[in-house]
Amino acid sequence: MRRWYAATAAALVLLSGCAATPGAGSGQGELLTSSDQTDNQKRARIRLQLAVGYYEQRQPAVALDELKQALAADPDFADAYSMRGLIYMDMSENKLAEDNFRHALRLAPNSPDFNNNYGWFLCQTGREQQSISFFDTALKNRSYQSPNKALNNAGMCSMKLKDKVAAERYFSQAFQYDPGNPSTNVNLAQLYYERQDYERARFYIGRVMKADVMSPDVLWLAIKIEHRLGDRAAEASLATQLRRRHAGSAEYAAYQRGAFNE
């Protein structure tokens, strides 16, 4: 089960935006407009947006160079430090990632996005218990425009801590904010599967599949749920989709082995 969970957590960083790329900044005060910025700040923001684009295109070296230029123009640009932290985290440069996340938080300690990003970093580097307070800090900020991200992250880290009561609370709140979010529904399906509440697990995984999210881990979880419920026709249909879409995946290999309890 841990293997499935780890794969899902990695995939859902992209699916749900577990970490938030810069946009509105620290969330403090009014949004900046062009007239509020110096020429250097305008140049820095343009460089940041270029960096985000390169990051999304999987060009981290180019994105880092753009951020270097952004910070040369505005050394106190907190968004650039948080963005650089995300890139270094993806590169497994954990010391550099941590330095940048913490620097962003020193500049804007109340930013919900920065608290969420650093919390996610802590969760991914074996410090799950520490991460929860950063998610909770993000969620206390009433200006936070995407609380479902921090709620999902807090729920996943609670699952890693084996605190399923807290995980259910976070995931349920995320569902209230955005019932159609695939990440939230996968997380709830996984939670109820582990609790052996297979009917509820089926409900939530069904919502994911209706959104046409057919990644191998989602299909494998759906197969295991139908297997537990004894619906062999549904199980076989899902297995056919897994074979057609992801024949070379670890999940299909697990299905072929009958590894329903791994």
Task: Write up what this structure looks like.
This protein is mostly helical. It has a domain at 1-18 and 148-160 and 167-262: Alpha Horseshoe (Serine Threonine Protein Phosphatase 5, Tetratricopeptide repeat). It contains 14 helices and no strands. It has helices spanning 2-16, 39-56, 60-73, 78-90, 94-107, 112-124, 128-140, 147-160, 164-177, 182-194, 198-210, 216-229, 232-246, 250-257. Helix 1 (2-16) runs antiparallel to helix 10 (182-194) and helix 3 (60-73) runs antiparallel to helix 4 (78-90). The longest helix has 18 residues, at 39-56. It is elongated and about 65 Å long. It starts with a helix and ends in a 5-residue tail after the last helix. The model is unreliable at 1-17 and 24-28 (pLDDT under 50).
Topology:
Elements: H1 2-16, H2 39-56, H3 60-73, H4 78-90, H5 94-107, H6 112-124, H7 128-140, H8 147-160, H9 164-177, H10 182-194, H11 198-210, H12 216-229, H13 232-246, H14 250-257
Helix pairs in contact: 1-10, 2-3, 2-4, 3-4, 4-5, 4-6, 5-6, 6-7, 6-8, 7-8, 8-9, 8-10, 9-10, 10-11, 11-12, 12-13, 12-14
